[in-house]
C-alpha cells in the first residue's frame, strides 16, 4: 500500500506535458486548452448566495480557475478545479513572499480623495495603504514607508485612514488637515487640531474596506491590486515592488 501511494504521488508530480498523448493530447501539453468555464456555468456551480460573477480566468495555481464575484455587496474570490466538482475558498498564499493571491482589489475603484501622500506624487509606482493612527503595527509600517521612498523616489504611498481603533472625529480631523505631519503627530499620541470640516471620506473608506474584505490594518494594495496584510520591513517592500518599476527603453 505504501509503495502504491508513493507511485501515485510521483505520477501526480510529473509535469503536465508528460500526460499529453502525442498530438492528440491537451493542446501542446497544456491541459487548460481542453477546459473552459463561463460565468454562467460558474454561478450555477457555486453555493447559493452569489449575486453575480465578475470574472473567470485560469489561476496562477495549476488546475484551477479563479472565479471572482459579488455576494450581498461584498466581493469574493474562490477557485474551481478543472473537473468542476470542487471549490476552494479561503486564503491562497504565494510561498515566496506570503502574498495572498486570492485577495485582490480593483485599483480603479481606489480614489485619491482624502488620501495623505507619502512620497512624490509623480512617482510611477503607486501603492495604497489602509492604516489607523492608533494601530501599533501601522505606526511601525509608517516608518518603513519613509525608508522605502528615501531608497526609491519612484514609489509613492497614498494613505487611506480608517477608524478601527481611533475615534472617527479624530480621523476626520486628520484627513481634513491634509497634512502627513498631523497624521504622524497622532501616531505619536500628540493632539490633533480640531477641524470644522465635515468630510464623508472616513465613511467611504470604511465602506470600501467592507466591500473588498479589508478587515485589518495595516493593509497595502499593490499596483496590480494584490493585497499585503500586516507590516513589512522596507527592504522586503522594495523587493516586492521591483516588478512594477518602469523599464528603460
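Q: What amino acid sequence fits the structure above?
A:
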Amino acid at each position: 500500500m505504501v509503495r502504491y501511494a508513493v507511485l501515485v504521488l510521483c505520477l501526480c508530480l510529473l509535469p503536465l506535458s508528460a500526460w499529453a498523448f502525442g498530438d492528440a493530447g491537451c493542446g501542446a501539453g497544456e491541459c487548460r486548452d481542453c477546459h473552459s468555464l463561463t460565468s454562467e456555468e460558474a454561478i450555477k456551480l457555486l453555493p447559493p448566495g452569489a449575486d453575480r460573477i465578475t470574472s473567470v480566468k485560469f489561476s496562477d495555481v495549476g488546475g484551477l480557475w479563479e472565479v471572482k464575484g459579488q455576494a450581498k455587496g461584498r466581493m469574493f474570490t474562490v477557485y474551481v478545479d478543472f473537473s468542476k466538482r470542487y471549490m476552494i475558498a479561503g486564503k491562497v498564499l504565494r510561498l515566496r513572499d506570503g502574498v495572498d493571491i486570492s485577495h485582490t482589489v480593483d485599483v480603479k475603484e481606489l480614489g485619491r480623495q482624502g488620501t495623505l501622500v507619502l512620497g512624490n506624487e509623480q512617482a510611477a509606482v503607486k501603492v495604497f495603504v489602509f492604516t489607523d493612527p492608533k494601530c501599533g503595527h501601522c505606526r511601525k509600517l509608517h516608518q518603513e514607508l519613509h525608508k522605502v521612498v528615501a531608497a526609491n523616489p519612484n514609489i509613492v504611498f497614498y494613505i487611506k485612514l480608517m477608524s478601527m481603533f481611533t475615534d472617527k472625529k479624530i480621523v476626520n480631523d486628520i484627513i481634513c488637515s491634509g497634512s502627513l505631519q498631523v497624521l504622524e503627530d497622532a501616531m505619536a499620541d500628540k493632539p490633533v487640531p480640531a477641524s470644522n470640516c465635515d468630510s464623508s471620506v472616513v465613511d467611504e473608506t470604511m465602506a470600501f474596506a467592507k466591500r473588498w474584505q479589508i478587515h485589518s490594518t495595516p493593509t497595502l494594495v499593490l499596483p496590480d491590486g494584490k493585497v499585503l496584510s500586516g507590516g513589512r520591513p522596507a527592504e522586503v517592500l522594495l523587493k516586492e515592488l521591483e516588478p512594477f518599476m518602469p523599464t528603460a527603453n
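Q: And what stands out in the fold?
A: The two ends are 58 Å apart (CA to CA).
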